[in-house]
Amino acid sequence: MNYVFSAPEQPTVSVAGHNARIPVRRIFCVGRNYAEHAREMGKDPDRDPPFFFTKPADAVVETGETVAYPPETENFHYEAELVVVIGEAGKNISEDDSLSHVWGYAVGNDLTRRDLQLDAREKGRPWDWGKAFDRSAVIGPVHPVSKVGHPASGTIQLTVNGDIKQSADLAGLIWSVPEIISILSHSMELRPGDLIMTGTPAGVGPLVPGDICIVSIEGLSHIETPIGPRE
Ligand code: MN
Q1: Smaller CB count within 10 Å for the chain: N or C?
Q2: What is the predicted pLDDT for the residue at 48?
Q3: Centre of ligand 1 from the C-alpha of residue 2, in Å
Q4: Does residue 73 lie within any of the structural domains?
Q5: pTM value?
Q6: How many angstroms separate the alpha carbon of residue 78 from the centre of ligand 1?
Q7: Mean pLDDT of the 107-135 span
């Protein structure tokens, strides 16, 4: 293939205990998937179907990498999340079959320009500027299903400079991983390398330069993100 300029590098995420990496295709994110978080965002947790937004694949950041305080925000937030990694393509996947499409799981941090997100929400505009900016998806090493199974419960916790800000159990997801995969796949074909950030528990809040943000999930280890000065 001849390109008029160099093709961009394939974004990838690491695999725990392995040198091979996972090429990232798309990053899907679930909005408001824990009841207490829905309430803190001023919404009733309900049985409305889940809604999704996306981040670009090249927004991925690894654990240990510093994330500079992003532009155009004065309210930069963390969001601890369980990340599902799709390993097998499918569409119209049934809930019963959905877990067979999962390659593994990781710890994630859905970094958010909250002021831009809420402004967009109020005006009925897209969320991209609040959610899909550069370096907005911290994704830890992916743990294969063959090692960790399918975590449906376990503590998910986030600290800033050692203070616990979010602490919940994965069992508190309003929409479970099998439900999310099934619903998503009835709308878009899922392909290997698709990541699904499954939503954050209550307790979201701001990060400022100099902070160290750590997210951990029982059985999946932790990720660490230092926040750097605005560039
Ligand atoms: Mn989120």
Answers
A1: N
A2: 78
A3: 38
A4: yes
A5: 0.97
A6: 9
A7: 97
In a domain, 6, yes or no: no
Partnered with residue 114 across adjacent β-strands are none
Amino acid 47: pLDDT: 67
How much distance in Å is there from the Cα of 213 to the middle of ligand 1? Answer: 15
Question: How far away, in angstroms, is 3 Cα from ligand 1 center?
Answer: 36
Mean pLDDT across the chain: 96
Distances (CA, A) of 188 to 18, 92, 183, 200, 211: 30, 9, 9, 23, 37
Taking residue 190's Cβ as centre, other Cβ atoms within 10 Å add up to 25
Q: Cα of 93 to ligand 1 centre, how many Å?
A: 23
- Report the distance separating Cα 109 and Cα 219, nearest Å: 17
> For residue 15, how far is its CA from the centre of ligand 1 (angstroms)?
22
Taking alpha carbons only, the member of 32, 30, 55, 45 closest to residue 183 is: 30
Residues 82-104, mean pLDDT to the nearest whole number: 98
Residue 110 Cα to ligand 1 middle (Å)? 5
Residue 61 covered by a domain: yes
Q: What are phi and psi of 78, to 5 degrees?
A: -95, 155
Ligand 1 centroid–CA 81 distance in Å is: 7
Alpha helices by DSSP H, listed for 11-170, are 35-40, 95-98, 114-123, 128-131, 145-148
State in Å: Cα 1 to ligand 1 middle: 37
Which structural domain range is residue 173 located in?
12-230
